[in-house]
């Protein structure tokens, strides 16, 4: 795993942007694996700024997102589909039909997971952007997730429900279940770019980088990826440096 430690969140986002832009410049039809959460917001703002200022085009780029809450339609402000349009897609020239995410309202969840896994086998991520949960999860692959998992419906850990409740009016409103890419789908990406910032992530980052590779800390599987880059700020890197 290659590790880049930056002074702060802005520099982390700028470094992440440089790596994503490299992929799009090299292949205008690249497949970007994207993540939600507050961590990649700076990266997405940089992509929009660069698109406006320098005309970098995303017209033929395809995207696949990691996860979606069960039960939330794309029109719901708290859904990840809405998050992606609001924080990234609406600011680019990307075609919405080329952006993919699990349908949180699918009437047949198993069929929806099968559809998404089939899609991922065609749209292999040239780069997969990831954040990390404070408990070491990636996407919604909570501690205990098998390394050979693929897209399925998962139950969120209590700590994740608490962490994510800041985006809901009440903790009871946080969906307890979600559709999530599995660890095997993530490991299939050509390159993985994991972003982490802030003191709250220091322990998970330590476990991911220096700990044993264990299903108890799902992100630790990334030690086995041939091309994984961790970009984190000094606060998140505190225990590894
Ligand atoms: C959620 C998402 C993850 C994300 C994590 C961290 O649980 N499913 O993909 O990486 O939260 O979120 P944040 O970046 O807001 O700390």
Output the CATH topology: Rossmann fold
Specify the overall morphology.
globular
- The number of helical elements comes to 7
What is the helix content? 25-40%
Write up this protein.
The protein is of the alpha/beta class. It has one domain: Rossmann fold, CATH 3.40.50.1360. It has seven helices and ten strands. It has helices at residues 9-26, 41-54, 80-87, 109-122, 158-164, 183-187, 202-210; strands at residues 2-6, 31-34, 62-65, 67-69, 99-100, 127-130, 152-155, 177-180, 192-196, 228-233. Strands 1-10-9-6-2-3-5 form a seven-stranded parallel beta sheet, covered by helices on one side. A three-stranded antiparallel beta sheet has the order 4-8-7. Helix 7 (202-210) links the parallel strand 9 (192-196) and strand 10 (228-233). Helix 1 (9-26) packs across helix 2 (41-54). The chain is globular, with a radius of gyration of 17 Å. The model has no long low-confidence stretch (mean pLDDT 98). Bound molecules: 2-amino-2-deoxy-6-O-phosphono-alpha-D-glucopyranose. 2-amino-2-deoxy-6-O-phosphono-alpha-D-glucopyranose (GLP) binds next to helix 5.
In short:
The protein is of the alpha/beta class and 241 residues long. The chain is 31% helix and 17% strand. 2-amino-2-deoxy-6-O-phosphono-alpha-D-glucopyranose is lined by residues 35-39, 66-67, 131-133, 139-140, 160, 164.
Q: Which helices and strands appear, and what pairs or packs with what?
A:
Layout: E1 2-6, H1 9-26, E2 31-34, H2 41-54, E3 62-65, E4 67-69, H3 80-87, E5 99-100, H4 109-122, E6 127-130, E7 152-155, H5 158-164, E8 177-180, H6 183-187, E9 192-196, H7 202-210, E10 228-233
Parallel strand pairs: 1-10, 2-3, 2-6, 3-5, 6-9, 9-10
Antiparallel strand pairs: 4-8, 7-8
Helix pairs in contact: 1-2
This protein binds 2-amino-2-deoxy-6-O-phosphono-alpha-D-glucopyranose.
């Amino acid at each position: 795993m290659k590790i880049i430690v930056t002074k702060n969140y802005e520099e982390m986002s700028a470094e992440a942007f440089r790596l994503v832009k490299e992929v799009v410049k090299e292949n205008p039809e690249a497949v970007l694996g994207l993540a939600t959460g507050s961590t990649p917001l700076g990266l997405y703002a940089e992509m929009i700024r660069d698109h406006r200022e320098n005309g970098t085009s995303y017209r033929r780029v395809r995207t696949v997102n990691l996860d979606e809450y069960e039960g939330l339609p794309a029109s719901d402000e708290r859904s990840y589909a809405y998050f992606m349009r609001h924080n990234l897609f609406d600011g680019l020239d990307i075609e919405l039909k080329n952006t993919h995410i699990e349908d949180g309202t699918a009437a047949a969840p198993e069929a929806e997971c099968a559809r998404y896994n089939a899609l991922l086998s065609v749209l292999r991520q040239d780069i997969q952007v990831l954040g990390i949960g404070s408990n070491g999860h990636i996407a919604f692959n909570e501690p205990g997730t098998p390394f050979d998992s693929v897209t399925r419906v998962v139950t969120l850990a209590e700590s994740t429900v608490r962490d994510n409740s800041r985006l809901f009016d009440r903790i009871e409103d946080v969906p307890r279940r979600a559709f999530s890419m599995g660890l095997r789908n993530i490991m299939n990406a050509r390159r993985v770019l994991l972003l982490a910032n802030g003191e709250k992530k220091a322990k998970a980052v330590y476990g991911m980088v220096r700990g044993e590779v264990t299903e108890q800390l799902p992100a630790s599987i990334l030690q086995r990826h041939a091309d994984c880059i961790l970009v984190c700020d000094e606060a998140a890197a505190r225990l590894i440096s």
